């Protein structure tokens, strides 16, 4: 992780040694933001906040996502500790996806942003129309 060093003394507390900085090029927090900020990641997290999903049910919920893209998205979210993949040992075996505690917290914040956007769609549509009219 690339981070900003904190002021030090002779005895450095490991929890104070590094500070995440999303503006730093190589900081892990920036990479996590890139994962969370992707269109398919946002939609997958918002769907999973509704409850656990099997892969195909999640693909149907997130309209327009390809099987390949959803698989890549879920792998990235799982790698960052936001999504949990559980193989349910029944016949036939199935896989279920759910949010981790951190994933649920992030999804709730995304839900607030989504509600703001949905509630502002008239304003956004009008602004787009005005912009397009100015641009010819």
From TrEMBL:
Single GO molecular-function term? DNA binding
**Is Transcription regulation a UniProt keyword of this protein?**
yes
Q: Which keywords belong to this entry?
A: DNA-binding, Transcription, Transcription regulation
Domain HTH hxlR-type, by residue range, is: 27-125
Q: Which Pfam families match?
A: HxlR
In its keyword annotation, does this UniProt entry include Cytoplasm?
Answer: no
| Superkingdom of source | Bacteria
Spell out the protein name for this chain.
Transcriptional regulator, HxlR family
| Species | Actinoalloteichus fjordicus
